C-alpha cells in the first residue's frame, strides 16, 4: 500500500487556506490596529511579503521532492539524521499541540448551548473548561481523527466544505461593514494614518500577530505526498494560499478600521477594545445594527478552530510517518491502513493531544507557537544546499535570485522565531531536549546503521543557542531588553547570515544526498 495522490490544486489550496483561516481572523484586525492604527494595512502588506519570501524556497523544494511529512524529510536529505530529527520533532510538536488548543477554543464558543462544559466566570481560557468540557474536547479530537482515518478523500471533502464557509463568512462581514455606516474619516483621525509610526507598523507585524496569521500554509508542504501533479500543484497552492489570505486579511482590516465607531477609538487606537465574547467584529456588528451577523460569526468561531484542528491532525500523522521513516519513531508508525492513511501515526497524535489537554493551556499555546516556527528555517537553507547536492534533478519551479532570496528568507524565518518571544522559546528548548532524549534512547535500544550526521547539524546547534541568547537579551515576550528594539533584530539578522553560511558548509556531501533520495524517491 502507498499514499494516494488524489488531492488536486483546489484541494491543496483549501488545505492551506483552511490552516491559515482559523479563529484568529476574528481578533487579528483589532490586535493589529491596536499596534499601528490604520497603518495596520501596511503591516499586513509587510507580513504577506515576508511570508512569501519564506514560502518561495518551499515551493521549489516541494516541487523537487514532493513527499509526505516533507518538513521532516527535506532536512534529512540536505543535512542528515540529527538535523531532520530536531526540525521534524519540532514541527510534530507544533502540529500535535494545535488540535487540543482548537478543541478548547470550540468548547469556549459552544458553552452557551452546553452550559456544563465551560465556566463563563473563568478569568482566562485555561481555567474555563470543566471536567465535562475536557471529555468533550477529547471527543472533538476523536472526531478529527475519524475523519482523517476514513481516507484523504474524506479529509479533502470535509475541509473543502469547512474552508468554503470560512472564506464566505469574512467576505460577508467585509461587505456588510463596507456598505453599512463605514467611517472613511477613521483612516486619518485619532492621530493620523500611522499614529505610532514605523515602530507601530513593525510591532503589528510581530506583536500584533500579523505574520503568525499566515503560518498555516505549511500544511500543504506536509501533504505533498498525496498531491496529484505535485510538481505543479504543490508550489502553486502555496502561492495561491498566501496571496488569497493576504487579500482577505487586508480587506478585513480595511472593513474593521472603517467600521469601528468613533467612540471606541477616541482615546487612541491602542486602547480600542470590545467586550463581546466573539470578538471585535461581533461588537461592531451590534453597534451598526447588523446583529444578524452574530449567528454567522458564531458559526465561524466554531468552524474556524475545528477546520484548523482537522488539517493539523492530518499533517501531524504525515509528520509522524516521516519521523518513523527517518528512524526517530518506531517503524510501526510508517504503516498505512486499508484507507491508505498512516493510522498508527494518527493514533499517536491523538494520544499526544489528550496528554496536552492535561497541561496548562498557556504552556501548550507557547510550545505550539515556537515549535511550528522553528521548522521554517530549513527551507531557505535547504534550497541552496540541494542545488549543489542534486544539480541534475528536475526543478519545475526555481527560486529566483536564490543567492539573495534564500538568505533573506532565512533572516525572515529567524525573525519570526524571535518574535514568538523568550517566554515561548525557552519552552521550545524543553520540548527539543525531550526529543533529544527520545532520540538517544531509541539509538541505544535500536543502534542500526543509520548515521547520526552530527557534524552536519553543527549549524543548527549554533543557531538555536544564538537565537536563545538574543531572545533572552531582547525585547519580545519576556526578554530582559538589554538589546533595544531595532538593534535586537539587526543583531539577529547578522547572526542569521553567519549561520546560513555555516549551514551550507555543513550540508551533506552530494553523493550522500543522492543516495538518500534514490532510496525513497527515485527519479531524474
From TrEMBL:
Keyword set, alphabetical order: Membrane, Transmembrane, Transmembrane helix
Compartment(s) of residence: Membrane
GO MF entries: transmembrane transporter activity
Pfam short name (any one): AA_permease_2
Membrane-spanning ranges: 7-28, 40-65, 86-111, 131-155, 167-184, 196-217, 237-258, 278-298, 341-359, 365-385, 397-419, 425-441, 461-483, 489-508
Membrane topology label: Multi-pass membrane protein
Gene3D superfamilies for this protein: Amino acid/polyamine transporter I
UniProt-recorded name of the protein: APC family permease
UniProt lineage: Bacteria, Pseudomonadati, Pseudomonadota, Alphaproteobacteria, Hyphomicrobiales
